[in-house]
């Protein structure tokens, strides 16, 4: 804080305060008084001319999604006082909202802040109806667990796919992957430990409290969990965390990969978005307490979440869409593209009793005993950890597990805030009519539960049977980004965002274009990188190995014909196999390039283009990869032009 103050004074700040508590409930009217010496908390610097409060920048190179023409270049920034300012690399950074000259939001912070106001308003309305007059503010809170891979930088340098795409586009399975399941609980290696220590220090300097750090499932994979805070600060902190992860890794000779699926065959990386609602009095509205069955506010907020997730499955899926995450969703390490809610046995039983209007019979917690005198016995948790569910209730919060490792969590959180606010509004509207909240609430919640019960699933979401079961229940299954994102434009979704002033129709359309274009561009860059590596590196490597084999073989025939007289001679067989695979590889490069060139004829319709990329380009990429990986298995090590999976995954 002192360094910051010195810096601010040196830069001519006329006024400075520092605070430690996150601010909530800041409104535009309070903004001015906020800059008075009496303001409490946070970091405030008043510069003459107040240039920090809003700024102007050239937004012309920012993706516009058709929202504005290039000549309409102005973009405005506005200081967001509900998140911390911080000093990074000697520069004062101020979290800001970003909008265009036309007033359209260009960022994810603006809709997020709007959604926080909406969820505050609708939550307060419910609380008031229940007779709570003390609470004056409700914030949504988030803690985003961040998964990542660490690879030795020098080893990674040999991979152009990592350089351009952040993921490997080729690579045969190494002899050892994660099958021994020995990494998660394995001890953290010294080099990684040193990295984590410096990472913590750097994060703490920025006010980001990293709480736990451990190994993840795949070799080279790790996780960081921060202490949760308001969603707005959590989003800013997560963005900073991703940047700091990369920077600190570099100092340790490491490369930090935040891609959703850097390696085929081992787990990908996600970001678990833990979400809840907290009052200004510190009450967690999703905390069931000791007697959930009689905790009316808990039951109401819980039912609202179920209604929201069921009604807006598609929006939650869209909020995590992207080319990288498509590899993860539905793989064995991430929940499938089908949205459902895990509640665990106890809460499921509580809600069943509520739905059937009967008393709930709490079941006793089971005692676990090690059977050793010196080890104390303890009680089992009420819920197990269901790792397979995309949206799991974990005691007093929901854990949304679909976001990918590189995603900004702003999108998922503004969707969560908005859809849950909408469900709360529906409940409050219906209570308003009759007047007496207490008596009306139970039957209403029972009715809503009956309607939305299909969204609850406590079983194994990875099982094949679940896909069929979900289809029977009528749940949506939007497998790829190209299929999911067009539903952003559905009337019900546009209506929702417009109704609450989260996004205008124009803003939705532009975001739709930007996401779809981003998807296509990502696939095209990956395809071009693959074609380049295949032509310039793999084909020459396979050819040189082939030449070496052929000349050795012909030499051998000359020197000692009887040594290779056997028609099944291994050298000959290898030459034939290698030659066949090399031809196959060449053929598949050509096919990929053809699919790519056809992108141009898909026209300007982003949906058609995205579907073409998914159906034609991506399929051709997978075929090319299969041929290259087959080759990798038989080409001699010294000929293979890049570090392999074994080198990469076990490099640290
Ligand atoms: P797990 O590995 O079981 O998923 P962790 O303890 O690693 O759990 O992470 C839990 C995350 O949830 C942490 O980032 C924590 O700060 C966050 N969290 C805890 N309580 C809340 C809450 N009320 N609202 C939002 N996030 C929360
Ligand atoms: Mg988790």
Secondary-structure map:
Layout lengths: L1 H9 L2 E6 L9 H7 L8 E5 L6 E5 L15 E6 L6 E3 L2 E3 L2 E5 L8 H21 L8 E15 H4 L3 H6 L24 H16 L4 E6 L5 E6 L2 E2 H21 L2 E4 L13 E9 L16 H16 L1 H7 L3 H4 L14 E2 L1 H12 L11 E2 L9 E2 L11 E3 L4 E3 L9 H25 L2 H16 L11 H10 L7 H4 L6 H9 L5 H55 L10 H28 L8 H29 L10 H5 L3
Parallel strand pairs: 14-17
Antiparallel strand pairs: 1-2, 3-4, 4-7, 5-6, 8-10, 8-11, 8-12, 8-13, 9-10, 13-18, 15-16, 17-18
Helix pairs in contact: 3-12, 6-7, 8-12, 8-13, 11-13, 12-13, 17-18, 17-19, 18-19
Bound molecules: adenosine-5'-diphosphate and magnesium ion (MG).
Word description of this protein:
The chain is an alpha+beta fold and 652 residues long. Helix content is 47%, strand content 13%. The chain has 20 helices and 18 strands. It has helices at 2-10, 28-34, 109-129, 153-156, 160-165, 190-205, 231-251, 296-311, 313-319, 323-326, 344-355, 410-434, 437-452, 464-473, 481-484, 491-499, 505-559, 570-597, 606-634, 645-649, and strands at 13-18, 43-47, 54-58, 74-79, 86-88, 91-93, 96-100, 138-152, 210-215, 221-226, 229-230, 254-257, 271-279, 341-342, 367-368, 378-379, 391-393, 398-400. It is globular and about 100 Å long. The chain starts with a helix and ends with a helix. Residues 15-49 have low confidence and may be disordered. The structure holds adenosine-5'-diphosphate (ADP) and magnesium ion. Magnesium ion is lined by residues 145, 272, 399. Adenosine-5'-diphosphate binds at residues 141-143, 145, 212, 225-228, 272, 274-276, 284, 396-397, 399.
């Amino acid at each position: 804080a002192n360094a910051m103050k010195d810096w601010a004074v040196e830069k001519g700040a006329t006024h400075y305060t520092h605070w430690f508590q996150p601010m909530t409930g800041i409104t535009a009217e309070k903004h001015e008084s906020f800059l008075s010496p009496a303001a409490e908390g946070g970091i405030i610097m008043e510069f003459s001319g107040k240039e920090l409060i809003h700024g102007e920048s050239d937004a012309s190179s920012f993706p516009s999604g058709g929202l504005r023409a290039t000549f309409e270049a102005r973009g405005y920034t506005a200081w967001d006082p509900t998140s911390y300012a911080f000093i990074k690399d000697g520069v004062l950074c101020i979290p800001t909202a970003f909008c265009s000259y036309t007033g359209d939001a260009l960022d994810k912070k603006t809709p997020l802040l709007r959604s926080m106001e909406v969820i505050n308003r609708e939550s307060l309305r419910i609380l008031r109806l229940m007779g709570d007059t003390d609470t004056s503010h409700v914030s949504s809170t988030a803690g985003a667990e961040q998964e990542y891979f660490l690879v030795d930088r020098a080893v990674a340098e040999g991979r152009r796919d990592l350089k351009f795409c952040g993921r490997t586009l080729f690579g045969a399975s190494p002899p050892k992957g994660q099958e021994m399941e020995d990494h998660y609980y394995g001890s953290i290696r010294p080099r990684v430990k040193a990295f984590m220590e410096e990472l913590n220090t750097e994060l703490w300097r920025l006010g980001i409290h990293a709480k736990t750090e451990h190994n993840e499932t795949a070799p080279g994979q790790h996780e960081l969990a921060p202490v949760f805070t308001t969603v707005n600060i959590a989003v800013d902190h997560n963005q900073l965390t991703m940047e700091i992860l990369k920077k600190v890794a570099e100092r340790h000779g490491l490369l930090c990969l935040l891609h959703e699926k850097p390696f085929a065959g081992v787990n990908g990386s996600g970001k678990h978005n833990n979400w809840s609602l907290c009052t200004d009095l510190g009450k967690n509205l999703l905390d069931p307490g000791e007697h959930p069955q009689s905790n009316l506010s808990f039951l109401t907020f819980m039912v609202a979440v179920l209604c929201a997730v069921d009604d807006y499955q598609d929006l939650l899926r869209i909020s995590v869409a992207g080319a990288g995450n498509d590899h993860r969703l539905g793989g064995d390490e991430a929940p499938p593209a089908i949205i459902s809610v895990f509640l665990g046995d106890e809460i499921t039983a509580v809600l069943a009793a509520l739905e059937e209007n009967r008393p709930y019979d709490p079941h006793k917690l089971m005692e676990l005993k090690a059977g050793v005198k010196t080890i104390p016995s303890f009680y089992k948790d009420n819920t197990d950890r269901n790792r397979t569910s995309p949206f799991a209730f974990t005691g007093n919060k929901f854990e949304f597990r679909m976001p990918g490792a590189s995603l900004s969590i702003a999108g998922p959180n503004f969707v969560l805030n908005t859809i849950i606010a909408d469900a709360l509004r529906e409940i409050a509207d219906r209570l308003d009519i009759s007047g007496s909240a207490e008596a009306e609430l139970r039957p209403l919640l029972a009715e809503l539960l009956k309607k939305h019960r299909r969204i609850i699933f406590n079983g194994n979401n990875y099982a094949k049977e679940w896909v069929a079961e979900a289809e029977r229940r009528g749940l949506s299954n939007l497998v790829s980004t190209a299929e999911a994102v067009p539903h952003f434009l559905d009337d019900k979704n546009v209506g929702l965002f417009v109704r609450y002033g989260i996004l205008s129709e124009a803003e939705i359309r532009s975001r739709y274009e930007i996401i779809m274009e981003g998807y296509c561009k990502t696939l095209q860059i990956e395809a071009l990188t693959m074609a380049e590596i295949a032509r310039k590196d793999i084909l020459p490597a396979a050819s040189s190995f082939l030449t070496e084999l052929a000349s050795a073989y012909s030499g051998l025939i000359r020197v000692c014909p009887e040594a290779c007289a056997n028609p099944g001679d291994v050298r000959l067989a290898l030459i034939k196999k290698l030659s066949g695979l090399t031809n196959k590889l060449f053929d598949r490069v050509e096919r990929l390039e053809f699919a790519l060139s056809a992108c141009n004829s898909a026209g300007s319709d982003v949906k058609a283009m995205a579907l073409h990329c998914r159906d034609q380009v991506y399929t051709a990429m997978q075929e090319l990869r299969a041929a290259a990986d087959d080759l990798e298995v038989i080409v001699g090590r010294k000929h293979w032009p890049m570090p392999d999976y074994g080198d990469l995954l076990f490099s640290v």
